[in-house]
């Protein structure tokens, strides 16, 4: 039998060892199933969204507080998407990230069948996002399809809190991170340290 030469097989042979190592690292990552604090009486959801030229994504953390005031923050869910093939501006990608965050938050709350959640939607803000925050409920701005989707999928009767944070864990989704670094990345698994603070900087976007 004659040997069959597959175009590009040489490159695959070079890349395959590194791919195997990545899979092995992924298999070694342990994710906790129980993420709440023992005897928790307050549960808050903290969401972050970010976008770049490569991708955009959203991540949600759950913070549980017990009767003694002890709090614990753990990663709940995240999702990312690559940038569309068609050119899209960064501000519009930021809106796509906000829509993705809103959908994730709503989907999770529906799964829990929670009627009055103590949720807290927070996002690391830059000047562009802060400008969008000021226009969040403006009629002309809501004509944008992405903002209409975000408004429709937002949690009803709750204010939107915008946090200006120096560290945004969703940056890891939009800009990427090696698996080896992700395994021991404290901020990714337990959220930014500012979530442990009693007083968080915030700007409330009124409807």
Automatic annotation (TrEMBL):
<dbReference type="Pfam" id="PF05380">
    <property type="entry name" value="Peptidase_A17"/>
</dbReference>
<dbReference type="InterPro" id="IPR008042">
    <property type="entry name" value="Retrotrans_Pao"/>
</dbReference>
<protein>
    <submittedName>
        <fullName>Uncharacterized protein</fullName>
    </submittedName>
</protein>
């Amino acid at each position: 039998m004659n040997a069959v030469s597959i175009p590009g097989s040489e490159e695959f042979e070079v890349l395959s060892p590194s791919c195997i190592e990545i899979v092995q690292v992924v298999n070694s990552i342990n994710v906790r199933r129980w993420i709440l604090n023992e005897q928790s009486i307050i549960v808050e959801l903290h969401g972050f969204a970010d976008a770049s030229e490569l991708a955009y994504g959203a991540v949600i953390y759950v913070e549980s507080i017990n009767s003694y005031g002890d709090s614990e923050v753990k990663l709940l869910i995240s999702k990312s998407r690559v940038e569309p093939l068609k050119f899209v501006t960064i501000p519009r990608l930021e809106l796509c990230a906000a829509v993705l965050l809103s959908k994730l938050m709503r989907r999770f709350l529906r799964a829990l069948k929670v009627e009055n959640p103590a949720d807290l939607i927070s996002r690391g803000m830059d000047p562009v996002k802060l400008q969008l925050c000021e226009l969040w409920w403006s009629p002309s701005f809501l004509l944008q399809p992405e903002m209409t989707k975000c408004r429709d999928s937002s949690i009803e009767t709750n204010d939107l809190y915008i946090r200006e944070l120096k560290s945004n864990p969703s940056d890891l989704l939009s800009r990427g991170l090696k698996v080896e670094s992700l395994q021991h990345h404290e901020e990714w698994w337990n959220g930014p340290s500012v979530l442990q603070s009693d007083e968080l900087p915030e700007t409330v976007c009124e409807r």
